[in-house]
Write a structure and sequence with these properties.
heterodimer, A: 472 residues, alpha/beta, seven-stranded mixed β-sheet, five-stranded mixed β-sheet, globular, B: 155 residues, alpha+beta, seven-stranded antiparallel β-sheet, two-stranded antiparallel ribbon
């Protein structure tokens, strides 16, 4: 299941390690997460559903969906998809959700005081941290993943856009470039910000590093939430069978960890994510049976669709997934044509033999921390769900709390970087550091949202602005 | 709705196609027809043959100016640029390639059209790596050079 050769990527598998899974020895490589290593070893069921104990497998791969919770070294409910495997680690499957025997057993407590806390080290968060730090502010960047870069680290394709915004550069390279610019900024990885406990003038947040057993109390004058998004689920029988993945989850598995999801894939959704991930599956040597799209037309860029078609992958518009079947794992799926009213057309069913189903059906902004911090939110369909109302400086309705990137409205990495810069520069400027927001960032943001593909994002931002002006 | 929005396959009428004269000298065919915020091809062109009104407009090619140098082929993030040069019944097709195995010069390849249909064979004339992308030039029959958009190594 591990990819040996890849046209774009090189997987460094230097040190072999061994851990225990339900008493069985599993070989892995240093740098692999528990879930990726288990997948490579053929373990597809990671947890069970709470009520009916249905098997659940790898889905999102970035710590958002909780279908990979396992007991690790005695600690229950560990997200194995973002926890690195270690030599001698004891990993066990849990039948039910368990509570730890004690709150933060024997953990160290550390206090941090900073000017600006940035939550999330994806393109938006890294850009915010870089700008704020360049301006002279003391910045702390926190991310719950073991690596920096957010979803950039799995984007093997070259980015669109203009030269200034790194067009023509692969996402993985952009992540490396941004990482280099983080030099001198304090970073906490493997650390989850779990709660906001703000007082009048300071923002206090709690964070935990489960790997090293450290509890952080973070006091910040300003906070930028750049928490990204999570992949949407689609309702159909069998949607929880191991082998049904988020398309982004598959991208993480194969492009970050070099593990193939399976042999033959059905891709659901012909937006850019569905098209790009399908092509990357082909690059990894995985067969793509077809791409289906419920809408009457392909939602992603034509150029991405063209890349697939010339490789012989068919795209069926006005088609959706009826069910996935299989005994404990995906063995195939029934797809069918849909009419104008989204109803399945009887007799159009087709049985697709596959071991992997990828769902590329949109993203929902991750806003729970913002919600808990008490900023005003609105449900804006064009933004992907509930989002924090923010002004043109990316500041929310609560002073000193900013939002940037996908957690402010689903968009592109290129716009996320610009929003991050704006948030970081404004936050630092309001503390008396630096020159503030550069005009060209705003101009470029506007440019990128101008075309027909920017319409959704443009509308989302207009609605956010309207909500702000209405004073909620 | 345009056909390609449903099929993912362009027809020659969707694209700015060069004339016979231009094909003889060898020019870039840009299969980028939508308004996408993207412009690296404009920057890459050494003779200003590619232009755009703004970052969202589809590129326009001036075939008179184009010298078929293929500098734009490897910078296009959409892998949507091909250089075609025709000489009688023969042709040269230059395309971006991001699969394994990487073709070697002198090797035989199968050629596929925009729909992934196999339309013929060719011989690899040149393999270059630019901007982290392999750019492959294949010698083949005239129609394969005009319609071919993908290759597979026969190894």
């Amino acid at each position: 299941m591990r990819i040996k050769e890849h046209p774009i990527l090189q997987f460094e598998r230097e040190r072999k390690i061994t851990f225990f899974y339900n008493g069985k020895k599993i070989e892995a490589y240093e740098g692999e997460t528990i879930a990726a290593a288990l997948h490579a070893a053929g373990v597809k069921t990671l947890s069970k559903s709470l009520k009916y104990l249905r098997p659940r497998g790898f889905f999102c791969g970035i710590g958002k969906c909780s279908s990979c919770l396992m007991r690790v070294n005695g600690i229950p409910d560990v997200r194995t998809c973002i926890t690195l495997a270690e030599d001698g680690m004891v990993v066990e499957s849990q039948e039910r959700k368990e509570l730890p025997s004690a709150d933060f057993p024997n953990c160290m407590v550390e206090k941090k005081e900073v000017d600006i806390l940035v939550v999330g080290a994806g393109p938006a968060g890294m850009s915010a941290a870089i700008e704020a730090s360049k301006a002279g502010a003391k910045v702390l960047l926190v991310d719950e993943n073991p690596r920096l870069g957010g979803q950039l680290i799995k984007q093997t394709h070259k980015f669109f856009g203009s030269k200034g915004e790194k067009a023509g550069v692969r996402g993985i390279k952009i992540a490396e470039e941004l990482q280099r610019e983080l030099d001198g900024i304090e970073i906490l990885l493997n650390t989850t910000v779990f709660g906001y406990y703000g007082e009048k003038d300071t923002h206090m947040l709690g964070a935990a590093n489960k790997v090293e057993n450290i509890l952080y109390e973070i006091y910040a004058k300003k906070v930028v939430f750049a928490c990204g998004a999570q992949e949407n689920m689609l309702a159909f029988p069998g949607n929880d069978l191991p082998g049904v993945y988020g398309a982004g989850g598959v991208q993480t598995l194969m492009n970050v960890y070099g593990v193939k999801p399976g042999k033959r894939v059905l891709m659901v959704g012909a937006g850019n994510v569905g098209l790009i991930v399908s092509y990357q599956l082909l690059q990894a040597g995985v067969e793509v049976d077809r791409v289906i799209e419920a809408l009457p037309k392909i939602g992603g860029y034509h150029v991405h669709a063209a890349k697939l078609r010339r490789c012989g992958v068919p795209i069926f518009t006005s088609h959706s997934i009826k069910e996935v079947y299989g005994n404990g794992k995906v063995e195939g799926a029934i797809v069918a044509e849909v009419d104008k009213n989204w109803k399945f057309i009887e007799g159009s069913e087709e049985d697709v033999k596959c071991d992997t189903v990828c769902l590329a059906v949109g993203l929902t902004p991750s806003t729970r921390l913002l919600m808990q911090a008490g900023v005003e939110q609105r449900f804006i369909p064009e933004a992907g769900g509930y989002v924090a109302i923010h002004d043109e400086n990316m500041e929310t309705t609560k002073q000193g709390i900013y939002v940037a990137g996908d957690s402010s409205s689903i968009e592109e990495a290129s716009t996320a970087m610009l929003e991050g810069k704006i948030a970081g520069a404004h936050a630092s400027k309001s503390l008396g550091y630096g020159k503030g927001i550069m005009k060209e960032w705003r101009i470029m943001l506007e440019e990128m949202r101008k075309g027909p593909f920017g319409e959704k994002a443009r509308k989302a931002k207009e609605r956010i602005k309207e909500a702000l002006n209405e004073g909620l | 709705m345009k056909d390609y929005e449903k099929t993912g396959v362009l027809k020659p009428s969707d694209i700015q196609m060069p004339s016979e004269e231009h094909l003889k000298k060898g020019v870039a065919i840009l299969e980028c027809v939508q308004e996408i915020p993207c412009n690296p091809c404009v920057d890459a062109c050494p003779v200003d043959a590619i232009s755009m009104e703004n970052i969202n407009s589809p590129p326009a090619t001036n075939f008179e100016k184009c010298i078929g140098c293929a500098k734009c082929v490897s910078v296009c993030p959409g892998l949507a640029i091909f250089v075609v040069k025709i000489d009688g019944n023969k042709g040269l097709l230059t395309l971006p390639y991001e699969f394994l195995p990487i073709p070697r010069e002198g090797e035989k390849v199968k050629i596929f059209d925009r729909e992934g249909k196999e339309i013929g064979e060719g011989m690899v004339k040149r393999v270059k790596k630019e901007n982290e992308t392999h750019v492959i030039t294949v010698e083949t029959e005239r129609n394969c050079a005009i319609e071919g958009r993908h290759i597979k190594v026969m190894r």
